[in-house]
From TrEMBL:
It comes from Paenibacillus macquariensis. Keywords: ATP-binding, Nucleotide-binding, Transport. It comes from the Bacteria. Pfam families: ABC_tran. PROSITE patterns: ABC_TRANSPORTER_1 (PS00211), ABC_TRANSPORTER_2 (PS50893). This is ABC transport system ATP-binding protein. InterPro entries: AAA+_ATPase, ABC_transporter-like_ATP-bd, ABC_transporter-like_CS, P-loop_NTPase. SMART domains: AAA (SM00382). Residues 5-235 form the ABC transporter domain. GO terms for molecular function: ATP binding.
Length: 247
């Protein structure tokens, strides 16, 4: 059977800077993959290419055996959805945002699922008539996540989606996503700089350096015994980098 997703020799450069340098990986079964690496290594660029918000310069992505060249981008983006760090709200109310997906794809709006997800993400207090522009950063982030989950994508690309959340909301998001992954058999590629979160969530880890996949490991193995010096340094350095923000 074909792999869920293949990335073959992806290359991308901005001006004279190489961002992705032959990134190659396969997803063979639904799982939660943490995409880890220092800042500026090409993680977000990779996710934007995977959902076709950007084009690679070279290389191929293949979804269930079909090259991206043969699949309409709109159809592709129903299956692979990106939730970015800057949660973009569409104009209008919270409810307008939640209904967008079904309007775009001409599918019925699943009110019950929307309500359940909002409650699970600690947003039960939120007035659905409130203008989306007036939401806090953390509220926007969670509404954007619900909006995307309602599409039930097969592959969900998560770019630091808990970055502006307090501890309680962060754990709520993790629980919702963990349950969702199991129930729906979805695949997540999750960028996080929160190593404890990655330890809690990862079935696999992809460690990226200078645009190449340096390690592709079972989650537990990666955190117990990373096989490259770079990954070992990264794991030791992250808490120090985070604590320096407090100075
Ligand atoms: N549109 C663009 N034009 C020019 N350079 C870009 C563009 N987008 C990203 N870059 C550069 O590409 C490099 C990789 O960026 P990317 O956002 O993919 O890194 P990242 O690993 O996700 O970093 P972080 O962890 O800090 O979010 C960076 O040096 C960034 O400045």
């Amino acid at each position: 059977m074909a792999n869920i997703l293949e990335m073959n020799q992806l290359r991308k450069r901005y001006l004279d800077k190489i961002i992705l340098d032959g990134f190659t990986a396969q997803i063979t079964r639904p799982e939660i993959i943490s995409l880890l690496g220092k800042s500026g290594q090409g993680k977000s660029t990779l996710l934007r290419i995977l959902c076709r918000l950007e084009a690679q310069d070279e290389g191929e992505t293949i979804l269930h055996g079909h090259s991206y060249l043969t699949v309409d981008p709109k159809e592709w983006r129903k299956k692979i959805c990106y939730v970015s760090q800057q949660s973009y709200m569409l104009p209008g109310s919270v409810e307008d945002n939640l209904r967008t997906v079904s309007q775009l794809h001409k599918t019925p709006f699943d009110m019950q699922l929307a309500r359940e997800l909002m409650i699970s993400l600690n947003l039960d207090y939120l007035d659905w008539g409130k203008k989306s522009i007036d939401l806090s950063g953390g509220e926007k982030q969670r509404v954007a996540l619900v909006r995307t989950l309602l599409l039930k994508p097969e592959i969900l690309l998560l770019d630091e989606v808990t970055a502006s959340l307090d501890m309680q909301s962060k754990h709520a998001v993790e629980k919702v996503l963990q349950d969702w992954q199991e129930q729906e058999g979805a695949t997540f590629i999750w960028i996080t700089h929160d190593i404890e979160q990655a330890q809690r969530m990862s079935h696999r880890v992809w460690f990226i350096e200078e645009g190449s996949l340096l390690e592709d490991s079972d989650g537990r193995e990666f955190f117990e015994n990373p096989s490259t010096v770079s990954a070992r340094n990264y794991l030791q350095r992250v808490p120090q980098e985070e604590s320096s923000c407090l100075i």
